């Protein structure tokens, strides 16, 4: 709607009636006072303060977000109309900002979800790297632990099999090492 310098409503459109679910016809608003209309709009919302706040003299262009009872949101915009540095009145714009703000909230929620997913993926990657390091260390340790007894078993078995050891005491010693190292391997596997 548009008001003159005295605050009289000069023009209003049907969208204002729809947006605030007002009773009556748009022509009923013309000729009334802006303050009364703002109070009426605020009462439709359940609290007149935020709509009336847009009526403040300063600054010449002001936007105030207002929540509706149904959860919707309206941006109330008051623009001073001037002619030769004299105030002529105000242009009042009411934008249904519900869809835009819902979309902004949805985008923010998606952004936060993406950030949490990215953090979870980074944490997962770090954990995989740690598990990989542990696996490599484990394999290296097990490989070393297996290599030592296997080397002793193979060495003594080949030596005895090739007949390089003829003394019965040396053969018995070698067989003892083979059995001892085989038990050691068995114990490692069973742990």
Question: In a nutshell, what does this entry contain?
Answer:
The protein has 191 residues and is of the alpha+beta class. Helix content is 58%, strand content 18%.
Which features characterize this protein?
alpha+beta; five-stranded antiparallel sheet; 191 residues; 5 helices; rod-shaped
Describe the secondary-structure layout.
Layout: E1 2-4, E2 9-11, H1 14-20, H2 34-45, H3 49-53, E3 61-67, E4 73-83, E5 86-96, H4 98-161, H5 168-190
Helix pairs in contact: 4-5
Plain-language structure description:
This protein has 191 residues and is of the alpha+beta class. Helix content is 58%, strand content 18%. The protein contains five helices and five strands. It has helices spanning 14-20, 34-45, 49-53, 98-161, 168-190; strands at residues 2-4, 9-11, 61-67, 73-83, 86-96.
Order of helices and strands: EEHHHEEEHH
Q: Detail the poorly predicted runs.
A: none
Please state roughly what percent of the residues sit in beta strands, choosing from under 5%, 5-15%, 15-25%, 25-35%, 35-45% or over 45%.
15-25%
Q: How many whole angstroms does the radius of gyration measure? A: 43 Å
* SS class: alpha+beta
Strand order of the largest sheet: 2-1-5-4-3
Cα distance, first to last residue? 85 Å
Number of strands: 5
Largest sheet: 5 strands, antiparallel
Helix content: 55-70%
Helix tally equals 5
Overall 3D form: rod-shaped
> Kindly state the mean pLDDT as a whole number?
85
